[in-house]
Amino acid sequence: MSPSSTSPNTPVASSGSQQSANIDYRWLTTLMAKWIEGLDKRYPPALRAEGIEGKVTLIALLHEDGSLSNVRIAKGSGNATLDQVALEDVRNGPPVKLDHPLERPQISVKLSISYDLRAAR
Asked: Does residue 29 belong to any structural domain of this protein?
């Protein structure tokens, strides 16, 4: 099953020149939220049965080709299984279809996935 509730996703400026630091990445925030919404997210049946909910915040590097690497937990849900599922879902997700060039080889992005029984399909 898939949770449909997500939180805003924010690009986080990584090291780069002053010029690239002034680029407006608001479009990327919206794009990443849509990408998370479209993921084939799993909600482990055992956790659903136990009523376990939570939000996992991940950080990853988004590359110019839309691939994600170095996906890691920034803030866990409090449940190791839920955290692991979020990591796997993002790592196994399709490349991000970028609307605009990144203007750099990669950028750090923050992704939040909420596992909410009321919103789960």
From this structure: yes
Q: What is the amino acid identity at position 57?
A: T
Determine, yes or no, domain membership for 102: yes
Residue 7 reports pLDDT greater than 70: no
75 bridge partner residues: 57
pLDDT at 103 over 60: yes
* Cα separation, 59 vs 94, whole angstroms: 16
pLDDT above 70 covers a percentage of the chain that reads 80
pLDDT in tens, 29-71: 999 999 999 988 889 999 999 999 999 999 999 999 999 999 9
Range of the domain at 106: 10-115
Residue 43 belongs to domain with CATH number:
3.30.2420.10
Distance between CA 82 and CA 76 in Å, rounded?
8
Instruction: Tell me if 15 is assigned to some domain.
Output: yes
Task: Give me the count of residues in the chain.
Answer: 121
Q: Cα-flanking dihedrals φ and ψ of residue 84, to 5°?
A: -65, -40
